[in-house]
Amino acid sequence: MAAETPVACAIFPQFSKLPTEIRYKIWHLTLKPQIVEIRYYSPQDTTDADYDCWQDLSGSVSRALAGSGEGLGGYLPSWEVRFFSTAALPTAFYVCNDSRRAIMPFYPVCFASESSPASIHFNFALDTLYIDTLFAQLIDRFLDRLTQHERQNLRHLALSEECASPDLLGDSSHEKFWLKVETALIGLPELENFGIAIMIWRELRYYESVPESIVDGYRHKTSHQIEFFHELPDEVKADLEMLGEDDEDFMKPCLSYELTREIELRAKCVFGWSRAPPPEYI
User: Are 76 and 70 in contact (CB under 8 A)?
Assistant: First the structure.
C-alpha cells in the first residue's frame, strides 16, 4: 500500500518541512464552526429508529464512536442509553496524522450517559450543541450528566422550538420544561449564545400549499450537517412567495411560547435546515 500522502504535501511539497508550530497553525485555520446535534440510542426505544448511531450515511467520518465496540448487534441492558452525534468531524481529522495531532486537543471527547462513556468530539470554542425534538425526553438526564469541564466551557447551545411542544410534553409540562432549561442556563457560566431553533422543513409542513418535494429539499435525510441562520433565508422566502404564502408565520412558534424571564433575555430565534451536500460530496 502506498504511503499516506497529505493533501497539503501533494500541492505544496515543502509543507512537511515547515516548523511544527507553523504547520499546526495552518491546520488550525481549516477549522470551522459546526452544529453538533446530540442524539441517543437505546435498544428498547425505537423513537429514534431512523437515526443510525454507528454508520454515517453521508460517507464522511462522523462523531459517533462505538463506545464498548459492541455495535448494534451486541446485547445492551434495557436501561442503557448512549449519546452520540452524526455531525461530521473536521476534514483535518482524517487528512493525515500530522493534521490529526494538530487539532485533537481542540476536540475532547464529551457527553457521557449514565451507562456509556463520552463519545462525541466537541470544540467548545467553535461548535454549537443542538438539542432536537426527539432528544427533549432526555434533556434532564443529559444536562445532569454534564461534567464540570463541560458546564464551564459550553459557549453555544440551541434547542429546537418544538422541544416544548404540548404534543411532546403535554400542556401541564410546558412551563416546567422552560424552568428546567432556565436552571441549566444559569449553570453554564461561559454560555455566549443560546438559540431557539425553528427547523424550516418542520414549519413548511404546516403550509397546505407547499409540496413535499420542497419540504424535503430542506431536510436531506443523508446530510448530517445542520446550518443556522439569524434570518429566514431568501431561498425559503422565494419558495413561499412563489406559492402565495406569508413568511411571517415562521416566527409564530417562538412568539407563542410563554418563556421565562431569563430565557427571554438570552434566547435568540434562529432558522435551521439540513440541505443536501454539493454533488462532489455525495
Answer: yes
pTM score of the predicted model: 0.79
Q: What is the CB-side half-sphere exposure of residue 50 using CA atoms within 13 A?
A: 5
Interior angle at CA 154, CA 148 and CA 155, nearest 5: 150
At 42-89, the pLDDT tens digits run 766 544 444 433 333 333 344 544 333 333 333 334 457 888 998 989
Q: How many residues does the chain have?
A: 282
DSSP SS3 for 229: strand
CA pair distance 182, 166, nearest whole angstrom = 18
Q: Which of 164, 99, 156 is nearest to 137 (CA)?
A: 164
C-alpha distances out from residue 251 to 143, 195, 246, Å: 27, 13, 11
116 touches 82 (CB < 8 A): yes
Cα 163 to Cα 275: distance, rounded to the nearest angstrom: 21
Grid coordinates of 30: 481549516
Q: Residue 42: beta bridge partners?
A: 45
Q: How buried is residue 96: exposed, middle or buried, by Cβ count under 10 Å (0-12/13-18/19+)?
A: middle
